[in-house]
Amino acid sequence: xxxxxRTRALVLRSTDFSETSQVIRVFTRDQxxxxxxxxxxxxxxxxxxxxPSPFDLAGWYDLNYRARGTDxxxxxxxxxxEGFDHLRRDLPSWLDATFVxxxxxxxxxxxxxxPDLLREVLQYLKLLEHGQGRRRLRNRFLxxxxxxxxxxxxxxxxxxxxxxxxxxxxxxxxxxxxxxFCAGSTEGQFIDPRVRAYLAxxxxxxxxxxxxxxxxxxEVDAAWNLLKSLLLHHLERPPRSxxxxxx
Length: 247
Description:
By secondary structure, this protein is α+β, with helices and mostly antiparallel strands. It has helices at residues 91-107, 115-127, 134-148, 180-183, 193-202, 217-233, and strands at residues 3-16, 22-28, 32-38, 60-67, 72-82, 169-172, 176-179, 189-191.
């Protein structure tokens, strides 16, 4: 793929490359994850500057870039669309945001676009501004990410017999959700019916309704532990940001 392209992109990582430049990893709407060199992005801005300011982590940009035959493309112009400044005013929200960026950066391969997930991530970052329901929002994000990665189990039926589950079930990783009848000697983590009902309802819930949704904290915590175990199974190493989250 060569040529000049325009897209919108979320900055997942930025690294100073020199006194005047940065290397950035972005999640683009059209091409998924891409790595780019932004020459001159750290220079003092002028009216004619292609980059009004250095790239910010979690910034949402209009971005022009030149695709090259290597893994490192050339960013040629950018304009900030949304900086999510509220994230930098609240440490717990910022830690949740960096966790999301960390998951996107490590869970998905370069060149694999997920435009629906990207739209959901932008909603997530905006909703963190309200300062409520952070743990429920985090669970909602993990379900979306695991679904986009093709590894989210169905919460309403058994992966073995495909029958609808109306009682307790077991989560076998990576086999999926298994009903009590099929479990037998299969090793798996028991899921309380109330937790499974919460996960099933959460997976399709509108983002704007998540922060105000009243769910018992015990069920939210149990769901987080289940989703986290699924995520960690499919990553080579745990996200570094995970250890800093304020549960």
